[in-house]
Structures are given as C-alpha cells and as structure tokens.
Amino acid sequence: MLVVGIILLGAVVLTNTFTFKSKQITAEPAEFINIPQTCIQNLQKAIQFKTISYDHPDLIDSTAFLDFHNFLVQAYPLTFSKLKLEKINGLSLILHWQGKNKALQPIILMAHQDVVP
Predict the structure, then answer these.
(1) Does residue 51 register a pLDDT over 90?
(2) Which residues contact 86 (CB under 8 A, 6 or more apart)?
(3) Long-range contacts for 17-22 (Cβ within 8 Å, ≥24 apart)?
(4) I need a surface site. Which of 55, 69, 85, 100 has the fewest CB within 10 A?
C-alpha cells in the first residue's frame, strides 16, 4: 500500500512538473538611463557612514549621523537651500517641500538613514 502511494505521488508530481505553464509576463527591456557620475559617487560616499541604530540610545554614534547630515548638505546644496529643514531629536531630518497649489493633498516621500546591527 505504501509503495502504491509513493508511485501515485510521484506520478502527480511528474504530471504537474511537465504540464506546468509559466506565468511570467513578457516585458520590453527598460530604456537605458544614463546616470551622472556625481550621483554614483554620492551614493558611494553615503553608504560609508556608519549610521547604526540600536535599541539603547546610549549606543548610537551621533557623530556618524551628524557627519552624514553634513555630507547631505554639501552634496545637495540646492535641496537644502529650497526645502525647509526640521530636525527631530537632533538625528532625524524632515525636509518640507511646499507646493504651489495649497488645495492639493500632500504626499510624503520617505527614506531612512540608519541600519540595524
């Protein structure tokens, strides 16, 4: 009886394997985007900051975050000159970008600047 069950299971598995139809959609290749070298260099610099968050606030190296903030200001001066900067607890940044039409609903674009150990 056990042998018959194994043979039936094998037959079902083989049938499903050979009759499986791919559900992968065909897509056109994406258009090549030429990224400026400064963007690549800024990303390479940004990921070198050791902005590590810990559960206990005393373990956080605030100088790494502050150095990262200084890097952002130097790398993206136009952004920081046009947007209103608000700091939360000294380490979190909120940049407000005021729109022209106040009747429209706001949106939020979010990113994080920390990693966990």
Answers:
(1) yes
(2) 93, 94, 95, 96
(3) none
(4) 100
